[in-house]
Amino acid sequence: MAKAILYDATKCTGCRGCQVACKNWNGLEAVETYNWGSYENPKDLSTQTWLKMRFIEKGGTETDNMRWLFARQSCMHCTDAACVKVCPTGALHIRTDGFVALDKDKCTNCGYCVEFCPFSIPRLDASLISGIGDKATKCTACTTAGLNRIDNGYQPACVNTCPTGALTFGDRETLLSAAQDKVAALKSNSHPNAYLYGENEVGGTHVLYILDDTPKAYGLIEDPKVPAAATAWQDIIKPLGYGIVGVVGLGLILNIMVARARIISREEK
Amino acid sequence: MKDIERFRKRAIFHHWWIVLCSFLLAVTGLFMFMETLSPGAMGGYSRIIHRFAALGFVAVPIIYFVLNPKTSLEWLKEAFTWNTDDIGWLQAAPEYYFGGPEENMPPQGRSNTGQKLWMVVVIITGVVFVITGAVMMFSGVSGVAVILHDIAFIAGGAMFLVHFFLAVFHPRMSEAMRSMITGKASEDYVKSHHGKWYEEVVAKGEQS
Question: Is the interface score ipTM higher than 0.90?
Answer without folding.
Answer: no
